[in-house]
Specification:
single chain, 328 residues, mainly beta, Porin, 16-stranded antiparallel β-barrel, 2 helices, 7% helix
Amino acid sequence: MHRFFLILLMSVFSISAFSQKLEYNAQLYVFGDNREFQSQTSTSQTIFGERASFEIGTTLEKIHHIRIGLNYLYEFGSEMDDKTPKFTAYYHYEDTQKSVYVGAFPRMGLIDFPLALLSDTLNYYRPNIEGLYGKYNWKWGHECGFVDWTSRQTDTRRETFMAGFSGEIRHKSFFFQNYMTLFHYAGTALSNGTEDVNDNMAAVIYLGSDLDKILPLKKGYLRLGVIESSYRRRHEENKYVNGMSFTGEFYGEVKCFALKATFSEGDGHIITNGDPFYSIGNYIRTDIYWLIIHTKNIQAHINESFHFINGNDMDSSTQLHLVYKFRN
């Protein structure tokens, strides 16, 4: 941990020496997630903690941004040194049409995928993307993609990486959305081809419409689509296990309350970083939100989630999220 702080201190002096204006971002993310899952479809547990992050940097010519910092997770009830701080260091280019990130940069607020593809626990335990991200905007939509290097290959560690694409095309109140992820799980440096290499691909496409223009909603939409997945374990089965299901989502927000309902009907899916509930064939999730605070710097909400499994079992979970952002 001392090495992290030494690197950060040296970086502060370096940026201060060469920059005309020192900029900083600070964020506190407090989360509570109590999961009462009796069906054993997903892990029943209570996740309660906070993640504090701090970045410093400078901006050149209004489009070149350089940031360095630390990101630390403290789970309540643990010891301070149970978790190692995550080092954040990245270059960000942004103009009116495109945006590019290179390095280790925050995931929150940048990547927004359906839970079937990327579980919400990634924000708890893997706050940074370590690799690349790019986004290109048109008047009628956008497309973006990322590569996240999740494990470097050594004699004892297996190499893993994740990549994803997402985009949207809009015409008046109607939209088309696409999401895709790829996860590759390779062997160690000493495997000699004997370890199973896993390939996992998944995609979601939606057709939808905004509802807030035709219904008395502050914000609302309805989207329907398809989830597809493919999973292969080389050297063992060496063939893809495919899954396809129909999916849909409704969201409606009135004053400080919101309702979101999601369903998936069809095959179960094997998606490495996705929510485990989508591994079953018939799944319905309903979320009721109380939007406590929603200002420029502070967002806080509580939601109660009900998970209906194969029309028989029901699991429930309660989540609390508070995000405080401060920047100059």
